[in-house]
Amino acid sequence: MNTDRIVLITGANKGIGLATARELARAGQTVLIGARDPQRGATAAAGLTAEGLDTRFVHLDVTDPTTVAAAAALITAEYGRLDTLVNNAGIARDWRRSPEELPVEAVRETYETNVFGAVTVINAMLPLLRESPAGLIGNVSSRLGGFAFLADPDSPVWEHATLLAYNSSKAALNAVTLVYARTLRGSGIKVGALEPGYCATDLNEHSGDATVEEGGRRIARQLAEAGAGPSGRFFAPEGGTYSW
Ligand SMILES: NC(=O)c1ccc[n+]([C@@H]2O[C@H](COP(=O)([O-])OP(=O)(O)OC[C@H]3O[C@@H](n4cnc5c(N)ncnc54)[C@H](OP(=O)(O)O)[C@@H]3O)[C@@H](O)[C@H]2O)c1
User: Fold this and answer.
1) How much distance in Å is there from the Cα of 186 to the middle of ligand 1?
2) Relative to the CA of 121, which of 22, 73, 113, 129 has its CA 20 to 30 Å away?
3) Rounded to an integer, what distance in angstroms lies between the CA atom of residue 86 and that of residue 15?
4) pLDDT given for residue 132 in this prediction
5) Nearest-CA neighbor of 91 among 107, 102, 75, 80?
6) Does the C-beta of 9 come closer than 6 Å to ligand 1?
7) Are 33 and 21 in contact, with CB atoms under 8 Å apart?
8) Integer Cα distance of 119 and 113 in angstroms
9) Domain spans of the chain?
């Protein structure tokens, strides 16, 4: 994949999104740091700029269509196209809570960000992705949303198969990925589900065994693989692909 790409990453002010932004910018790509909080977003982008990287903050709350539309308008005016969209913004509200304890509002809130937010951003950015010679959408999913995992008592991470909102939202995101991959066949835009591995971040109370830097490297590698091969694949952190 060429390095001269315009990339938008949602939720890129910290965690895996920020690490992915650093990786892609180090590879020569222009990275737009999507963040819902202007202060946090501007600070993150300034940090990368101070490292000599080509990044800029773009205000974008995936649950607020007004900010998503404004971000699309800004990218249209400034760049005229988008080559890569990374739907990274995500939340987990059910960490260490059983399905019966979890208020349905928490499930709804999780879907608003992890599923409906991604759909909102994809639809807003599709006209820009169509202007790219090789458009790419990477949805940051999780193996915890894979049906193969959810149905496997022998999985090493089976203990996490109880996360009702998070896991089912990622399962829905996987279906969203396949529907767009199917719909965009022949358009030149590829769509894939990505998995950074279990990384220590705020999302999981820093319980992950990998660093965010490793997660960012994995997402960057998976994006390159997603762009180089068939659309509609679910990439595994250690290489290769998962079954859905
Ligand atoms: N950590 C893991 O082990 C792991 C494994 C598999 C997949 N993932 C996925 O990786 C992605 C990144 O997670 P992370 O672990 O890096 O978590 P994190 O450190 O908590 O970062 C989440 C990011 O998403 C942003 N965000 C949340 N709601 C948003 C919204 N409505 N609009 C825009 N941005 C929003 C957060 O912004 P604020 O700072 O404003 O809250 C933050 O920048 C998520 O999709 C997660 O499900 C993580």
Assistant:
1) 31
2) 22
3) 14
4) 98
5) 107
6) no
7) yes
8) 10
9) 6-234
Quick one: which atom of ligand 1 is closest to the CA of 92? 47
Is 14 annotated as catalytic?
Answer: no
Q: Is the CB of 163 under 6 A from ligand 1?
A: no
* pLDDT, tens digit (0-9, with 9 covering 90-100), for 18-44: 999 999 999 999 999 999 999 999 999
Determine whether the shortest distance from the Cβ of 142 to ligand 1 is under 6 A. yes
**pLDDT single digits (tens) 178-190:** 999 999 999 999 9
Tens digit of each residue's pLDDT (9 = 90 or more) over 85-143: 999 999 999 988 999 999 999 999 999 999 999 999 999 999 999 999 999 999 999 99
Q: Is the CB–ligand 1 distance for residue 58 below 6 Å?
A: no
Fold of the domain built from segment(s) 6-234? Rossmann fold (3.40.50)
